[in-house]
Every structure is written in C-alpha cells, then in structure tokens.
Amino acid sequence: VGADMGPKPSVTVNFDGLSDRVCYATLLSDREHVGPYSVWDGIEENGKNDRNYPGELEYDIWKAFADYRGCDGYCFLQRAWRVDKTKSLTWGYMPPDNFRILLYFPESGEFAVSGTYERYAFHTYYTVDMRDYTAGSGTLPKAERSYSYTNETISLIARIVLTIGIELVIALLFRYRSRRQVKILLITNVITQVILNVFLNVVNYTSGSLAFILMYINAEIIVFVIEAVIYAGILPEPVEGGKPKRGKAVLYALTANAVSFALGFAIAWLIPGIF
Asked: What is the torsional sign of CA 259, 262, 266, 268?
C-alpha cells in the first residue's frame, strides 16, 4: 500500500457570469499522461471501465470530451466536472502544468476552448468572465490570473507586526526596557522577520503548505541563532565591575522565538488565511 500524504498542487478556474445551461468543463493537457490520468486508448470497453473514468460523469459526456479534436497538441485526460451550478472547476490532484480550458454544453453539443495557460503557483487560480462569451463562437474569453496577492501582502504584514509585538512583550518580562534595548530589538526583529516571512511566502506560493511548514521550522532555528548571537553581544546593559548577562539574552531569544513560533501555528489553525 503506497502512502500519498501532504498537500497537492491544484488548479481552480472560476467562471464568472456562467449561464445556468448545463455545462461541463475540463483542462486539456499538452501531455498524454499526467500522474494517474491518461488519454483514452480508443478501445470502447476501456472507455467504460478505465480506472481514470470518473464515476459521476455520464458516459455520453465523457465520450464527447474523448472525441473532441479541436486543439492540436492538447488532449483530454478523462477528467471533467459539471460547472453550471458550482461556476468553478477545481483539479485538486496532479493537474496538468500546461493546459487549455474546455467547456462543453451538451444540450447544444457546443464546445468552447481557451488559449494556453500554465500552473503558475502551487495553488493556481484563474477567472474567466463568461459575460464576454459569445455563444456558438467556440472560443472562451481570456482567463485572468486571480491569485489574491493583496490578501497575501496583508497577511505578510500582519504576521510581521504580530511577531514583533509578541517578542517585545516578552522582552518587557525579561526586563529589557531601556530605549537602547528596545531599539536593538525593533531593528533586529524588523530585519529578521521581514526576511523570514517574505522567504516563507515565496515557499508557500511555489511549493505549498507542507514545504512551508518544513522551511518554517528550519528558518526559525536559523533566526534564533542569529538573534541569540546579536542579543548576547549587544543587548545586555553594561554592568560596572561585572560581566553582562549574556546567557539571559540567549534565553530571551529562545523564549521569544519559541512563543512566537507556537502562537504562529495556533493562529494559523484558528485563522488559516493569515499564514
């Protein structure tokens, strides 16, 4: 028995303004085999019983897609979904990297195909404005990338501000309260947290949440080491006739990073959109 765990890449296409006519959609691939999916081998019996054949798809719908020959170099991988009710298609397991969007209206036998597109992020989103579609034209309006960069930017800023706030509160508990110490903490945290969170955003965008978690753990360890060295070196106030409490500064760095790391995961669980 093989295990296939962890998040998988996906492609979601939203069809804004799609009519209520019965409609099915698929992504045509430039490859004949993608993961467990493949083109029909032309044998009628296999078309009815093939393991890739989605049981919820009626045979005549599947056959219409399988017989479609409107796009040279792009083929049907025997996956399609009804979209007139959901107004969207989500290929959630091993979607093709390069594809065309194909709609089929069985009541009229009409097909409508898009230009070529690609999977540009781990979770890729496109939107097609069907209000611009002319029935019978056979051509879909241009699909626009609809990944929420604004929300990602807001989440990034929120994470940075939240982390710095947590670490400053912990600093007060460790009695790091002088203007000089607060300035050191602010400058160090702004630099490390901006670099850390921008890096993690890129990882999440390109590789998904599992890679994000793994890199989050490793990156937090690196941040702790960097901050511990900086804090041990310059954070303690000079002590007349004695040595600065460098061990306390290292303990602070460990505590602050551990707490912000744990709270980060807790918040990600409660408010998934922020991480």
From this structure: positive
pLDDT tens column, 133-150: 998 899 999 999 998 888
Residue 140 CB-half CA count within 13 A: 30
Alpha carbon distance 61, 112 (integer Å): 15
Long-range contacts for 35-41 (Cβ within 8 Å, ≥24 apart)?
A: 35/93, 35/94, 36/94, 37/77, 37/78, 37/79, 37/94, 38/77, 38/78, 39/75, 39/76, 39/77, 39/78, 40/66, 40/76, 40/78
The pLDDT value given to residue 5: 47
Contacts made by residues 167-173, CB under 8 angstroms, sequence distance 24+: 167/256, 167/257, 167/260, 170/252, 170/255, 170/256, 170/259, 171/252, 171/256
Domain ranges of the chain: 10-145, 149-274
- Tens-digit pLDDT profile for residues 48-80: 655 444 456 888 999 999 999 988 899 999 999
For the CA atoms of 154, 160, 161, 166, what is the dihedral angle to 10 degrees? 140
**Scanning the structure block, which residue is given the tokens 């990156």?**
219
As a whole number of angstroms, the distance between CA 75 and CA 32 comes to 7
Which pLDDT score is estimated for 201?
82
Q: Would you say the pTM of this structure is higher than 0.85?
A: no
